[in-house]
Amino acid sequence: MVRGLRELLSSEGQDPVSADFHRALTREILKTELIRIKALIITASAIAGMLWTVYLIAPEQIERLWHGNLKPAYLFIVLGPFLLFELLAHALVKRQLELDRDVSVARRYASAFIETSMPTIALALHIDNMGSVTALGFVAPLVYFVFIILSTLRLDFWLSTFTGFVAAAELLAMAMLYHPDAPPEFEYHFARSMIVFTGGVLAGAVGVQLRRQFEKSIAAASARDRVTNLFGQHVSPQVVERLLTEGTSTASDTRRVAVMFVDFRSFTAAARSRTPQEVVDRLDGIFAVLVEIVDRHGGIVNKFLGDGFLAIFGAPFESPDALARGVDAAREMLVAVSRNNEGNSWALNIGIGLHFGEVVAGNIGSPRRKEYTVIGDTVNFAARLEALNKEFNSQFLISSAVRESLGEACADAVSLGEVAVKGYEQPMAVWRLG
Question: Using an 8 Å Cβ cutoff, are 276 and 216 in contact?
């Protein structure tokens, strides 16, 4: 099963982590980067607004903290360039997202260094006006943690660790080298810096876990897309889920399946007097009903063929009662079409052909495009059976293989005798059901 699932996720020996996967992951990372930048812009704007509010309402408190040295220009010196930088970074990331490109590693690290250095400038201003002891115990060193926490949205362990390292190194450097009012204690400030650095490492670990969750989600979505493409234009959600959880081999092999062809009699002639949109709407409506029936009986619609489709019972998953499921589905289709025709100005006349036998089932096609399908005489004869409905003015024809395999379950089958079938030298036994 594991091998089968791996075959679903990769073809022709390619790594399952495809270019599409990397592209989707890159886009998600860029989206989280935009969220991180927006959070920084909002946070910086909120801090600026709060400081201005306090300065206007209670200036004496600000003057006391800053020893009468606060100048409004200080806000613009720190927050102005920072907001401008983040707005430019936001524009760059958004542009790269539109172009479906990633931001270079050098730019990521440069951005992390510049951003994390902003609190250091604020700390320098605080030290100038408050003194090193008060400033290092005030809010500026705590701002480093805002950048460290938001670095988790970069989904990169080393970027978060680098952010923590820059914050710790600059905090320690400011404490040890810039102390106008009191000599520093290395052990005290080193311990504080190590806590900051540890915060960066932990943020990186959280970012890695988030990235893994993104990768799993994207891989699951990619697998579902590939399963849908592989098994034709329609695969029921139940089949997709089972393929993803259990896996199944897609290598070509021989197996016994029930093959059903469904077609609508005289549909082309009726469609000539209607608009293309009316034709599409009518087909969509009736297909929605019939496909749901196939799904419920454990089959898959392998191909849509204009005004009909090919359904398979017993592949890609083997089923001991595949044939019985196929017959039950066909009987229910006849009833469903009859009900659907009631009150509808465009009544449809369905034709179904069902045969049971061996086919070659598997992943077939070119190296660039493959799909899961069934090939063999069983498929050909099922198609011929369906076409015979027009000749016998019937709706549901089965082969002798179906009649003999089900026995009493098809006791109501009516023999049409040995019938000449196009493409076959000998007449073939045909039965009518329904």
Answer: no
For 377, the 3-state DSSP assignment is helix
Rounded to whole angstroms, the maximal C-alpha distance in the chain is: 111
pTM greater than the 0.70 cutoff: no
Q: Band the pLDDT of 199: cuts 50, 70, 90.
A: very high
State the Cα–Cα distance between residues 362 and 284, nearest whole angstrom: 28
Cα distances (Å, whole numbers) of residue 164 to 1, 159, 241 = 44, 9, 42
Task: Give the span between the Cα atoms of 407 and 125, in whole angstroms.
Answer: 93
Helices (H), 131-185: 132-136, 140-150, 157-177
In angstroms, the first-to-last Cα distance of the chain is 39
Q: What is the pLDDT of residues 85-140, one digit of tens each?
A: 999 999 999 998 888 888 889 999 999 999 999 888 888 887 877 777 777 877 78
State how far the Cα of 317 lies from the Cα of 322, in Å rounded to an integer: 10
Buried b (16+ CB within 10 A) or exposed e, 66-84: beeebeeebbeebbeebbe
% the chain with pLDDT above 70 = 82
DSSP secondary structure string, 68-87?
A: T---HHHHHHHHHHHHHHHH
CB neighbours of residue 406 within 10 Å = 19
